[in-house]
Amino acid sequence: MGDSVTGEHRMLIDGELVEAASGARYDNVNPATEEVIGHVADAGVADMERAVASSRRAFEESEWASDHELRKRCLRQLHEGLAKERETLRPQIVAEVGSPITLTYAVQMDSCIDDMEWDIECIDRIDWEYDLPVHEFFGMRSARRVLREPIGVVGAITPWNFPFMLNLSKIVPALAAGNTVILKPAPDTPWSATHIGRIVAEYTDIPPGVLNVVTSGDPAAVGEVLSASRDIDMISFTGSTVVGKRIMAQGADTLKRVFLELGGKSANIILDDADFPAQMGSGAMVCMHGGQGCAITTRMLVPRSRYDEAVDLLKAGFEAWTYGDPTDPANLQGPLINARQRERVLGLIEQGKREGSRVLVGGGRPPQFEKGFYVEPTLFVDVDPDSTIAQEEIFGPVLAVIPYEDDDDAVRIANNSRYGLSGAVNGTDLDRAYGIAKRLRTGTVAVNGGQWFGPDSPFGGYKESGLGREHGIAGFEEYLETKTVGLPTP
Ligand code: NAD
Hints:
490 residues, six-stranded mixed sheet, alpha/beta
């Protein structure tokens, strides 16, 4: 072990920090150094079944679902514990994710700790009970009361790209809404979950079973326990569209609620009146975190009337982009998560070349790194909007530049995708840019640099980018059921 960073290797099951029943562990690997930095419990199906039984019991027998004050107090203890251990967590996240440390001061860690209070305050924002006017039905006048209730036991399944943030984005609103939760993180990033489990055990009065954290190197077998079990009421999943569909199919038999945050292939439409030096100069920002972000605008749509100028500026920006060691605050791009992802990304780059797109910068493995799962920042131009690299989510540091004729053509190309997660429109005339944003079939759009992200901003996908919304009141309500009670009039 060449790295001094360590993390929590035990899971949280039924209020206790535990090893897998079999005693098995698997390696946690730093993607920047390829070194084993520690181990973590490797749960089997029996461990997951124990977690499910514990969460069910906690939902039915503890006060968690009904006691709003208990939930606020306990979640504030969790918040305090996480805030106190920030500087222990930060190097763990950098080491296991390969995330640039600079990102941990924002969305990768700090902003989600700081935003927790917003979800906790939702407990006071929601109308847990409200009355409807008296209504006559079949000759009888009735009062009606609407109750909002937690859904029950939630299985939360998360990916590796922003693991700590995505873990909190699920467990905080789900717990605040009164559910109990089983968190199953991605195998590559277990510490971002087990650390939360340890803080729950050591800093909070959260009753046993209200949160279970189960790590496994074999996600399909263990994850499928969640999607198939009758004791799980909802799956909250963030990950790839292909696994999201599988989970939905597996959950169909028990008609499980499914909340899905999936992949994206978002378009950035550059209008002909845009500030080209500024827009193209920042074009390489799509390589941030190795392009491992679901909402990154990985297709750039450029007006043909200014295409050559745009391509020259983009090329200069990509050539000037520096990347490497994620512990260096100057780098915004580190490695990809593992060798499999690197090979997948390189395979898609080769496919792009075969299908006729032109590589202007990058396109392979960078020779300067002896270790680490790095891919060169890669600029593709003359990309056919129907080709593989314009349609498939690459999840690597790759920008596909596509020329368009006029505004209608730009909207048509942007919407020519099975995904609908995010997008951007950049020009000088705000009304024109906003008008185009309204025509995009996506869950979020950034207009002229405006940022849509926030704890109160609903985030999610149209089309095959998902079902439901995370964050905001809409996100909180995903974790609630609605019951209507008919009552006789007084
Ligand atoms: P993935 O779909 O391979 O895995 C996601 C999670 O599902 C992991 O925890 C994995 O262990 C688990 N899993 C895999 N097979 C399973 C099964 N059969 N049953 C239950 N669980 C199973 O995704 P990934 O490669 O970890 O992450 C990258 C993907 O996540 C990209 O497609 C990206 O766009 C997407 N993503 C989406 C958002 C969003 O909010 N829309 C955010 C981040 C990442």
